[in-house]
Write a structure and sequence with these properties.
alpha/beta, 4-stranded parallel sheet, 5 helices, globular
Length: 140
């Protein structure tokens, strides 16, 4: 089996990367190891152009160079683990962009990610995992 770990942290060798590496270490006996790092990469958000839906070619029509290599590895993998720090109640914008686009293309092409094993890792400190709008102490 082939595993891929995708780190959405802007910090290299931070807590998110450390936890993803521990996860890959656990999978080492059963899976090939591969990892990608999104820091410094230019992955644009989904434009909802629906070209992937019309063409059915398992690719995204946007021409940013950093999305496609990671997306191809996601398609090849049997196991996909994503990790992101949580700064404001959500994954990093790069991780959200990758997952939005990959998910849209997958749904447009028979849900090819639906038969894969996957899991998320979230790294947060204090109130990073709570919604600021509901739990804000500002003005209280």
């Amino acid at each position: 089996m082939h595993a891929i770990a995708i780190c959405g942290s802007p910090r290299k060798q931070g807590n998110t990367e450390t936890l993803l590496q521990r996860c890959l270490d656990r999978l080492e006996d059963r899976a090939c190891r591969a990892s990608f790092y999104l820091a410094g990469q230019d992955i644009k958000g989904c434009r909802a152009c629906a070209i992937c839906n019309r063409l059915k070619d398992k690719t995204c029509n946007q021409k940013d160079d950093d999305f496609h290599p990671v997306f191809e590895k996601m398609q090849q993998a049997d196991i996909i683990v994503v990790g992101s720090p949580v700064y404001f109640g959500s994954a990093t914008p790069e991780m959200v962009a990758l997952l939005d686009r990959a998910g849209y293309v997958s749904r447009a092409n028979g849900n090819f990610f639906s038969r894969k094993i996957g899991g998320p890792l979230a790294v947060a400190r204090r109130r990073g995992t709570t919604s600021p709008s509901r739990n804000s102490s500002c003005g209280s």
